[in-house]
Amino acid sequence: MARAVLCVLDSVGCGGAPDAAAFGDQGANTLGHIAEECAMGRAEEGRSGPLRLPNLDALGLGAAIALASGVKAPGLGAGTPRGRWAAATEVSQGKDTPSGHWELAGVPVPFAWHYFPVTEPAFPAALTDALIARAGLPGILGNRHSSGMPIIRELGPEHIRTGKPICYTSADSVFQIAAHEGHFGLDRLMEVCRIAAELVHPMKVGRVIARPFVGETPDEFRRTANRRDFALPPPEPTICDRVEAVGGEVWAVGKVKDIFAGHGITTVLKAPDDMGLFDRTLEAVDRAPDGALVFANFVDFDTLYGHPRDVSGYARALEAFDARVPELLARLRPDDLLIFTADHGNDPTWVGNDHTRERVPVLMTGAATPGAIGHCGFADVAESIAAHLGLAPGRHGRSLL
Length: 401
Ligand SMILES: O=P(O)(O)O[C@H]1O[C@H](CO)[C@@H](O)[C@H]1O
Ligand SMILES: [Mn+2]
Ligand SMILES: [Mn+2]
Fold this sequence. Notes:
Blueprint: E1 3-9, H1 30-39, H2 54-59, H3 61-69, E2 84-89, H4 97-104, H5 125-135, E3 141-145, H6 148-162, E4 166-169, E5 174-180, H7 181-200, E6 207-214, E7 222-223, E8 228-231, H8 239-245, E9 250-253, H9 256-259, E10 267-269, H10 274-287, E11 293-298, H11 300-306, H12 311-331, E12 336-341, E13 360-366, E14 371-377, H13 379-389
Parallel strand pairs: 1-11, 1-12, 2-14, 3-4, 5-6, 9-10, 9-11
Antiparallel strand pairs: 2-13, 4-5, 6-7, 6-8, 12-13
The protein binds 1-O-phosphono-alpha-D-ribofuranose and manganese (II) ion (MN) (2 copies).
């Protein structure tokens, strides 16, 4: 009986979104620009030369980039793809992780997220007063837009001294809380985040994110793998709920459970980095029973290399991932459908530090006839999985099989 394996390479977009200009992202192209920088010898840290992704490219990666954006990515797209490939366009209004994943799982986001203004304070007093009162806090620090490590280095000593957590936001619809694992306590941080989530979810803020850190001085501060996202649940049943509803198992690898607020997830496998997550994905493919969906997210592309605008690092991570694709292919059973895709862009050559609105590649193999599909929607990924697993069609999208 059939199984499906969905691998989301976080932020690995391929340009060309028709509404990119509305996001200030006209021309952004994560894969296309990384390939160009590599070909020009401008991504030489820890790697060298043209971007080498032979395994993903054989499934149609270069073809998807060219279709999505019109860019012929150097070194990619030479042969005829052995995969069934497409370029997917998002309809949800956000270029964020929940929007991308929910729509890939068959549920476009029907509302606009709330974003906190770029002011100081960034959070309304009614919100911070309620959080302080309900969580019994001596106050909060931060209360502005920031990137995570700078604000931890700046306010960490005062946080340790006073017990006030560091609250900040970003261009995403997020309320982030950084606190020291030892001095403040991990359980206490999670409790404060739970209360914050109850307060901000009704405002349509997508996530509260716990950002625990360790270390005793600003130089030593580092965040731990105990990050946790408290996400708003999806507004309709996703492919995860639909698989679970017919008795199937849904194996979530990495942060997938958090993204879906736990809905429709039956087994969770975690690891501290993408190579570890690849190992967990292989383990899931070995162990998941018939009828299962294995749903993996590979977050390092986005967090470690996209946001910090590290082109060499992003290229290295792509090459390391690509080199392991044959291990996954070798483990597939004859009835398994394998899909590689992404949730949004995060072009490391672009201005700023935010995600970029882009199309994403959809590369299918295993139980999928090779060929070009052309353009598709994010929700078509879920409907392809539904069709493959013999589930009833959903409300959005169509099967690409
Ligand atoms: O700088 P850090 O704290 O990693 O923040 C990043 O992490 C958040 C969630 O992925 C995003 O909103 C982005 O701003
Ligand atoms: Mn993402
Ligand atoms: Mn991100």
